[in-house]
Amino acid sequence: MPDPEVPDAVAEVCFASDWPAVRRVQREIEQALAPFAFPDRDQFYIKIALEEALVNAVKHGNRLDPAKCVRLRYVITPDRFEAHIADEGGGFDPASVPDPCSPENLERPCGRGLLLIRKFMTTVEYHGRGNHMTMAKVRTAS
Amino acid sequence: MSTTRRPRITFEDIGDVTVVKFTDKKILEEQAIQHIGDDLFKLVDELGRKKLLLDFSTVEFLSSAALGKLIRLHQRLATGGGKLILCGISKTIMEIFELTKLDKMLKIVKDEQTGLNAF
């Protein structure tokens, strides 16, 4: 059960497009999530979706350009995790990404990160030209 | 494997099957995935192993980038008449394979012994 006494965690960070920065942010969010004691499976889903979304922003969005930043805002409440992630890249049309589960695409190493985000989060939205996304996970009732 | 970095996998030959274990609990980082891929492809391309059994029992997290490596390894082995089998996958990581339908493409078994018997 969620603990209503735990105060909401809200933070906004802007970090460089490199892997050490991504890991730092992930650790920060893991620490922020801990007091809320989400079910283990929810925590797994959040970590995987966050990994995929941050890698997309840093690698595919900003193309690992250290001069470009990723903006992340997260809000954690006792029953919900929400993240807004924006990169400085050209964006993309999520609908144009081939379905990685189609038999003809099964052996192509692409599109699986987006699929995992979609499946593991409760809601996923892309904004503007596709370089800004919001994803949220509602706590699973125990 | 490279002498300038720590190994990302360990392996043991049991008969003609090479059993591979991972040294990291999380297979997430780009560089780590690249190193794991290099080590696995070295087993196939340079050391001539044809039957690989990857044991994931120590692995807690796996990203889609790692899945890409597994797909390429499967393709490489299949092209050369070899075979790839995965075992020891946790329930949560199994969800990743099921959601991406890779459980249909890759042979996945419960444990090492089952895997050894499945080649």
List keywords for this structure.
A: 142 residues; Heat Shock Protein 90; five-stranded antiparallel β-sheet; 3 helices; B: 119 residues; alpha/beta; Transcription Regulator spoIIAA; two-stranded parallel sheet; globular
Task: Give me the secondary-structure topology.
The complex is a heterodimer of chains A (142) and B (119).
Chain A: E1 9-16, H1 19-33, H2 40-61, E2 69-77, E3 80-86, H3 112-120, E4 123-127, E5 132-138
Antiparallel strand pairs in A: 1-2, 2-3, 3-5, 4-5
Helix pairs in contact in A: 1-2, 2-3
Chain B: E1 9-14, E2 17-22, E3 26-27, H1 30-45, E4 51-55, E5 61-62, H2 64-79, E6 83-87, H3 91-99, H4 102-105, E7 107-109, H5 112-116
Parallel strand pairs in B: 2-4, 3-5, 4-6, 6-7
Antiparallel strand pairs in B: 1-2
Describe this structure in words.
The complex is a heterodimer of chains A (142) and B (119). Chain A is an alpha+beta fold. Chain A has one domain: Histidine kinase-like ATPase, C-terminal domain (Heat Shock Protein 90, 2-Layer Sandwich), CATH 3.30.565.10. In chain A, 32% of the residues lie in helices and 25% in strands. In chain A, strands 1-2-3-5-4 form a five-stranded antiparallel sheet, with helices on one face. In chain A, helix 1 runs antiparallel to helix 2 and helix 2 packs antiparallel against helix 3. The radius of gyration of chain A is 15 Å and the shape is globular. Chain A contains three helices and five strands. With 119 residues, chain B is an alpha/beta fold. Chain B has one domain: Transcription Regulator spoIIAA (2-Layer Sandwich). In chain B, 42% of the residues lie in helices and 24% in strands. Chain B has five helices and seven strands. In chain B, the strands form two sheets. Chain B has a five-stranded mixed sheet with strand order 1-2-4-6-7. In chain B, strands 3-5 form a two-stranded parallel ribbon. In chain B, helix 1 packs parallel to helix 2. Chain B is globular, with a radius of gyration of 13 Å. Chain B starts with 8 loop residues before the first strand and ends with a helix. The interface between A and B is medium-sized, with 22 and 23 residues.
